[in-house]
Amino acid sequence: MSIIKCFQIAFIALRLNALRSLLTMLGIIIGIASVIVMVSISDGAQQQIDERINSLGTNMLMVRPGSSFFGGRRGGAGSAPPMTETDVSVLKELNFVEGVSGYLRSSGAMVFSGTNWQAEVAGIHPDYIDVRQWEIEEGRNFTEREVKTGGKVALVGQTIINELFSGNDPIGQRFRIKNIPFTVVGTLKGKGQSSWGQDQDDIVMVPISTHRMRVSGRRSSASVNSVGSISLTVDPGFDISEAEEEIKYVMRDKRKISPGSEDNFSVRNLSEFIEARSATQRTLGVLLAATAAISLVVGGIGIMNIMLVSVTERTKEIGLRMAVGARGIDILNQFLVESVVLCLVGSVIGIGIGFGLTELIGSLGEWPVLIKSTTILIAVGAAAFVGVFFGFYPARRASQLDPIDALRTE
Length: 410
Fold this sequence. Notes:
The chain has 410 residues and is an alpha+beta fold. It has helices spanning 3-16, 18-56, 85-92, 128-131, 144-149, 158-163, 208-215, 240-254, 271-313, 315-323, 328-365, 373-399, 403-408, and strands at 60-65, 69-70, 73-74, 83-84, 97-112, 115-124, 136-139, 153-156, 174-177, 180-188, 203-207, 226-227, 229-234, 265-269. A hairpin with a 2-residue loop joins strand 9 (174-177) and strand 10. Helix 2 runs antiparallel to helix 12 and helix 11 (328-365) packs antiparallel against helix 12 (373-399). It starts with a helix and ends with a helix.
């Protein structure tokens, strides 16, 4: 008997027992739908996390004062000598460093035409825009001359444009930060929320020297050249771990840290975030696979049960087929195809329900969802495997029936 004929018989059997077939397929339908929903939500969240991590710059390193442990106790940013402009200059000389910028952070009240807004004020070098892969939407970046002379110029994020300038073009506008007038020379392209939920667009950037002298008021000799942290990007062709070790060596040498002593600074690598994300993804993948496996096994047991019932009910039909020349392999193929068809039809219904639920959850919950074609292919493949695996025993039992005994069955 040809495979096409087997499929025809299978669909006829499904149609004759439509309600029973539908109830049999419920396990497969629920299993496939739940897999589609969970994997789509997981992939959507994963894509959003990847975008946020990539927005920080995957080849970026951050150098901060303080260390995890300093002098036998847990240290912090204030427990070690601060970073300085000299550190920035030293790191800039390394041949694998593409861009480097100091960073100072504070918050301040801003006023424009009677509108007030409180936001983060960042003091940066011009390279910071490239280091953070932040595009300037309109206008221009700072110049080195403006950094050296403490120019009162600013770059503003999208949230500032909306809240302080009411969505109007802010280029060339003058506004005040802590009662100091600044002129907007450029606007930053939107970045959205960071991985830890912070609005990255609620920011005003000014030259680091201006921030130091006018915004944060660091006028003492100890802090006149200080920077809060240093961000730098490594040449993409250079190993990020090797760059991290080289930077530690240079900083230890500059800070005259004796061998065996703890670092009084820390170098943070974004690959740590990526590794943490990968570990989380692996754990989530195992949980999803376990859930899907349980659902499909339950569905498969239902398929096996109904196929055994079907073999019992159709024993006389099997005997008749054998009596007119059907071989055991033909009977086996017939029931195996019926089992696979049950699972495939169930998987198609499950995929449709999964699509609908995923879109509903995404729209109502405003959660990021991503339906991949590979997810659908895997779901269909898994359903076909379940059909073969759980349908083989009933099919084999049917194929080994004795024709005479089968014909005698009432």
